[in-house]
Amino acid sequence: MIFNLAIQKMKLVKISAPIDYLDKFIRECCLDGTFQPESAVDFLPKKGFSTLSDENPYTPLIQMIQEITKEFSVEIKYERVAELFDDTADADYLKHFYEKIHANYEQREELQKKLENNKTLVENYEHFAEMDINLKDIFDCEFAKFRFGYLPRESYEKLQMNVYKDNPFITFIKGKEVKDGYWGAYVVPASKKEEIDNIFTKLSFEKAFVPSYNGNAEQAINEIVEHNKQIEAQIDALTKELQDYIEGESAHFSLLVNRIYALNKAFELRSYAAIKKEDNTFFYVGWITAQEQENFEKKAAAFKGLNADFEEPTASMVEKVPIQLKNPRLFRPFSYFVEMFGLPSYNELDPTPLFAITYALMFGLMFADLGQGLVIIIVGFLMHKFKKMPLGQILMRCGVFSCIFGAIFGSVFGIEDMLDGFYQKIGLTFLPIKVFENTTSILILAISVGIVLMLLVMLINTICCFRLRRFADAIFSANGIAGLMAYIAMVYLATNFMANDALKQKLAVVPSSVPVAMLIIGLVLLFVHEYVLEKSEDKNYKVQIGGYILSNFIELFESILSFFSNTVSYLRLGAFVLVHAGMMMVVTTLAGEKFGVSYVIVMILGNALVIALEALLTGIQSLRLEFYEMFSRYYAGQGKPFEPVNINEIEN
Hints:
alpha+beta
C-alpha cells in the first residue's frame, strides 16, 4: 500500500567473530548512526552463552569530566569525533586540568572569604566611627575591658532614668544612633566583670566583634577598604588567569571529552554481545535499514573470520522491529502528531499521508478565512525559521487550506463581502458561499465529510487485515466488511428517512430491501465475530450460548452506538465554521464604521484574538477527530522507534 512506503525496510544483522575483534567491530561498525544493537542472548539458545560484565575503565574519567563541567561551569563544545583511540595520557591530562582549575578556584574562594570577613569588619567599625578613641589603647587596658555592641532604645532609656544609679559602673558610651537603638560600648572593671556583663545581658545588649587596632574606627575602616581593593584585584587576576587557561585548553579539552564519551559509549555496547567461551567467539545482533546493508557489508568485510548474516524480519519479530519513517516532504511535518500517538508497527500502515491531508482539510474548513489563513502561514514560517519548531511547518500547510476555504466562504479578516465583486467579475456567481445563509448545508457537509472519512478508514482497515491474513477481523469486525455493510445501510436508511421528495426519488433507484438486507447481514456478521475469531485461533474453542449471546448483544449495541457517535462528532466541523463567522461578526460590529481609526484598531485586536483562540481550538479539535474517530478504527500505533547509536550525537 502507498501508506507503507514511508516505513523503512529493516534487516536483522547477526554477527559472529573471534572475541578479539569485539571492540574494534563496535567502534567501526556500530557507532555511525546506522546500527541499533539488540541483546544477542535473546536471539540465541539459553545455554552456552554469557554476557560481558567488565568494569568500565572510562567511568572515572567521565566522573572527573562531570565534576569539571558542573562544579567549575566549564563548557564543552560537542564536535564530530573523527577517530576513536585510547590514550593513556588522557587521565593525566584530565587530572592536571582538574587540579589547575581546582587550585585557582580554592585561591579565589579563600580570597572571597577574606573579602566578606573584611566587609563585615567594616560594617562593625562603622557603628563606632563617631567614637574618636584609639582602639588599641582601650583593648590594652589591664584593669578594665570595653564591650562594643548594640543597645535597644528602651534599654538605653532605662539607663538614663538612673534605674541602676546605685551602681556607678553601669555606664554606656553612646556611638552611632539607629532607628531602634544605639551602637556604643560599656566599660567592665576586671573585678566587676561578671556582674556588669549580666546586667547588660538583661538589657538585651548585643555584642559586636571589633578587633584591636592602633587608631580609631575611622582609620581602621580606611585601611580595610584599601586592603579589600588589593584582594579584589587578586581575585580579578585569578579569574582572568583561569579564563585564559580554559580558553587556551578549550579545543584540546573538548576534543578529549568528546572522544572519551564516545569510547565510553562503545564500551557500554559490549554488554549487548553474547560470548561463547568454548571457542572464544562473540555474537552481536542489531537492526539496520535495508539501504544500509551494502555499506555495512563493506565495513564488516575488513574483519577476517567475521560472519555477517542479514535476515528479513519474520512474523514473530514484528513487535520487536524498530520503525524509521521517511515520508515525502509534503507530509513529513505531520509525523510529529503521528509519533505523539505512537509509531506504526512494522507490518502496519503509516497513517501520516492520510493524516496530513485530512487534518489540514478539517483545520481549513473550521478556520475558514483567507486573511487569517495567510497570517497562520506567516506565523508558521517564522516558528519554523527561527525556532525550528515542528508545529511551524504544520501551521504553514494548514494555513493554505484556511485560505482555500476562506476564499470559498468569502471571508477576509472577517469581512464577508470583500470578495463579492471579484467573483461577479470572473463569472463565479455561486461564490462566495454565505455562512449564515447556508447553515443547514454546512452542517450537512460536515456530516458528509464524517461519513466519507468513516467509510475510508474502515475500508483501509479491511484491506490491511486481508493483507496481514487476519481474515476474521477483515470480514466480521466492526471495522471490516461487516461494519462497512451495516454502516452503509444505516447511512442510506437514515438519509432516506430525512430526505426531501426530490432526494427520495433519487434514492429509490436502490430498492429498500437491499439496505435492509445489508444491515441484517452486517449485524449478524458482527454478532458472530468473537466466535469466528476464537475458533480460528483455537479449534477446540467452545462457546457458552447464554453468556455469549448476552455479551455479544451488548458489544453489538456498542458498535451501532459508536457508528452514530463517531459520525455525529464530525458536526463540530460545521459548528466551528458557524462559530468562526459569529465571532468575526461580533468583531466587525464592534469595529463600527469602516476605515476609521477605531475601526482599524478593533479589527486588528479582534482578529489577533480570534486567530490565537480559534487556531488553538481548531487544532485541538482536528487532532481529536484524527485520534478518536479515525485512528481508533484502523491504527494501533504500537511500534517502537529506530534508535541507532551515533557517537556524534552523545551529550552528557
